[in-house]
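GHSR protein: structure tokens wanted.
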Amino acid sequence: MNSHSRCYLFPYVEQVVFQASILTIAAISVERYFAICRPLQAMYVLTRRRTCIVIALIWLLGLLLCSPVFTITVFKVEEYRMNDCSPTYLVHDCRSVASTTPTVAYFTTITLLFLVFPLALLCGLYVSICRKLYDVPMTESRDCRSQRVKMKSRRQVRHLSLYSCEY
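Answer:
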């Protein structure tokens, strides 16, 4: 594989793997959310077939949305010489530069799709998971709460009466 081909292929593969990794982490987080917060639905929603479809869609989405990298990447061969007496070297320059409005829009959209939105999703899912794991159960009825308050007040009265008898 020559340097010209590598110049276009490496940034593309790098972007695809990066974006697929982020989406995979988001998919794992959704799976954890269902397993912890909605365990009865998890058996029906998280099937082996759906998992395979989600993995295939993640990679397909990454492959398709990264294809503009081929048009954004620029390959140049330039001559380089340190001084007049030194030999001339050929320098292979490979860059992905956002110099036009469409390329800036592409990188902004990719940043939102693959960094900001997954981050917001992860934060929301893990806040829900933490609430589920660490909060006091909210299903307790008012009668139970009022009985607990009565019992607490009875204990306080009992403690006060014990102290008042010590004279």
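The radius of gyration is 30 Å. Residues 3-37 form the longest helix (35 residues).

Cheers.
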